[in-house]
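Sequence in, structure out. First:
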Amino acid sequence: MAEIQVRRWSLLFSNKMSSYQSSPGFYVTGQTYMGSNGYSLKLQGMEYGINDKALRRAIVMHGADYVDPSYIESQGYIGRSLGCPAVPVDEAEDIINTLRNGACLFIYVPHKSYIAKSSLIR
């Protein structure tokens, strides 16, 4: 089998509308709903200037068929979620049900700019 190089980290992050980029940091999970990506979980960003626009940007957790080892093997990366934290489709319901309604979710990025800007981890 050929070696596959997978980029493990996103390189760009944003809190801006229509950026289609993820936002790192601390979130509080909200309610579930059925959306265009199936069973999904609303996320409230807790870090001003970093992810506080997540609800308005419709950044939610949802299942995605591109979060799958066979997709990664064929493409060399996990597909793009346009900013949402995506999880494997066959695990989405269990993950979302475990986290819904008030759990703390932390999306870590090893970027000095996030670490310097976050008032919650300093």
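Second:
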Amino acid sequence: MAVDFKYLLQGKHDCQCGRDHNCELKNIVLGSGALKELPALAGGFNSILFVADNNTDALCGESVRILLGKKCRKELIYQTTGVLVPNEKAIAELDAMVTPEIDLIVGLGSGVINDLCKYASFTHHIDYFIIATAPSMDGYASCHAAMIIGGMKVTYSAHMAHSIIADVDILRTAPEEMLRSGYGDILGKYSALNDWKLGHVMYDEYFCQNVYDLIYETTKGVEPIGRSLMQRDPEAVRLLMEAILVVGVAMSWIGNSRPASGSEHHLSHFYEVLGLLNDTPYFLHGVNVAYSTVETELMREEILALSSPAASVNSMSRETEIRRVYGSAAEGVIELQNKAGWYEQDMLTLIQNKWDAIRDTLHEVPDSKWLIHCIESVGLSMDKYYAEYSDGERMDAKRWAKDLKDRYTFLWIWFMLLR
């Protein structure tokens, strides 16, 4: 049964968690032929800037121009032979196009185009639409924009899209790797949700059972579609995109990405950051998340195999190791953790005092064998992961990916007990 997005966008009030949940996103149109709704959605706007790259423009850019008609006053088509990078140059190109008469940006693309349009529209105080071209990640409905600034990935607070158009006829033409990426990003919610609940168990962090259940059941619904997704079955593509949008709305209900981004995203970000710093290859975000979901579950299983918690005897120098791993970015990473104060916590005593509750929580993630089965259904294998990232890189990720964020995740427990 399809999700009622009109109902979800109304938010949830008088929730048992004690908070009201709201969503500023106005419209979600998902289905075959959804693109035809563009003129009606844009009816209240008069001067539109159309943004795409040469790949997405070739896909259906002309249809977008025809549907917008004379309201399409300007356009920016990024020219790229590889991956479009949302860096200072790309931001400046878009900023220059947003003149005072522009009252709406319409983006055609996936992650990068969405982030660029989101960031520019927020800084210029106007609305934006995104026409999704791939079910590749859960950021369409997010209020954050991930940019590459000074060669590093930086996430900025922004605003949500005014409207999201997700036409299944367009989405099912996405490259296979983008389909895998979206599936992996959703599968990673098992890990993220577990980290959220763990934060509640350990530090009484705010937690909403309704949001947890919504995302958990959505993730469970995507589990079995892997093979049909790779065959571009329209219903499988629709289900994946639906899940992506549900997660985005759920994040807006909470006001941040906590229910959807945890230790698995920290590992994924680690590989992306090292790739940018060292100019080395790395997988698409959601593919990294898929592999990192398995990796973090293997780490949970290591912890669950312990009879009792005791501190690791490894006496590494944190700052020395951070400088070795992060090079030119190290000082910012060190400063972030000094400010967060996690290293000053008596975490071991807390782990010992809450050991039974921790174990109960960790058991809630599907086991690694099942997760491997899931990623294999979309053509991913752990052998490819091990071939892409060396033993040393993967160990560095397990130890030091947590330092990229100030969010508490399972990685801290693993670090304390098994580093």
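Remark: The beta strands are 27-31, 48-53, 72-78, 104-109, 127-132, 144-149, 152-157, 163-167.
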